[in-house]
Amino acid sequence: MESGIVFDIRRYSIHDGPGIRTTVFLKGCPLACAWCHNPESQSIGPAGLYRRDRCIGCGECLAVCPEQCLSRGEEGIVTDASRCVHCGACCGACPAEARELVGRSMSVARVMEEIAKDETFYDESGGGVTFSGGEPLAQAEFLLALLRACGHSEIHRAVDTSGLADPELLGRVAEHTDLFLYDLKIMDGGEHRRHTGVENGLILRNLQMLSKLGARLRIRIPLIPGINMDGCNLDEVGGFIAALPSSCPVDLLPYHDWAKGKYSNFNLPFLLETIAPPQEAEVEGAVQRLRRFGLEVGIGG
Question: Class of the 3-43+104-299 domain?
Fold first, then answer.
């Protein structure tokens, strides 16, 4: 596949793998995690962004909407999500740039042009490119084409993944990946489904497979109070990782609510309204608990 849907490209990233990196965010994800920091990434198609603080109330968007799914409300322009087809007409008409269509089709060549801009920084810092999302494996052929292109240019390649993918496909991706940033969220299958929308059996089996293949892995665990920070879950996580065929470091990612505003801008409900970020002592407690399993554990960005 020579093109795919990209919703962001961030340069000079230092939290998505070693060194200075360019992170390419692909749209589409089979999970719907309650704490997702990129809710606009979950659907494969474009998502409509509305910044209420920029809206001047001129009504230009209402006039051009072919589906007539916009109306005036007490807090600005209201979108009927059931009727919106994300055509982008309202975005083009908005003089205040309060509206934006997030997600655009890009060719492999065009993405590589952006990646190539920072090759000097990759070389100097030991960095490279990270493909994230959403779930980059949701656009598997596009991802594979990008990984091959980076390989031809000798650029280090990392894939940030939930691990929910066909094992054969994941094995193909592993052949062209230098590092997996592999998310491990909740060990209990029922609780995993409750908070992410999917079971975790395939995710766990795929992690074991990659470890057996000798793929380089960093496991990333989000820490969300009241969801996965209890001692039982942490002990199960620690035991599972310690039993993998090859050892790999662990990064703990403390939950924060910085993305709360995004949910409002994308007309989506924010499900963790009552959950506060973990205290420093709680995070350190999780670090120490996992280290008891002989794991290399740090706190990520």
Answer: alpha beta
Measured CA angle at 187 (ends 186, 191), to 5 deg: 60
Could you read off the pLDDT of 10-21 as tens digits, one per residue?
Answer: 999 988 999 999
Q: Average pLDDT in the 71-92 region?
A: 88
Region 219-247 average pLDDT: 97
- Can you give the residue ranges of every domain in the chain? 3-43+104-299, 47-102
- For every residue of 49-104, DSSP letters joined together read EE-TTT-----HHHHH-TT--EEEETTEEEE-TTT-----HHHHH-TT--EEEE-E
Picking from 170, 200, 171, 172, the residue whose alpha carbon sits closest to that of residue 184 is 200
Q: What are phi and psi of 132, to 5 degrees?
A: -130, -165
Question: How does pLDDT run across 114-131, given as a tens digit for each residue?
Answer: 999 999 999 999 999 999
Per CATH, the number for 47-102 is 3.30.70.20
165 Cβ neighbours under 8 A, 6+ residues apart: 135, 137, 140, 173, 202, 206
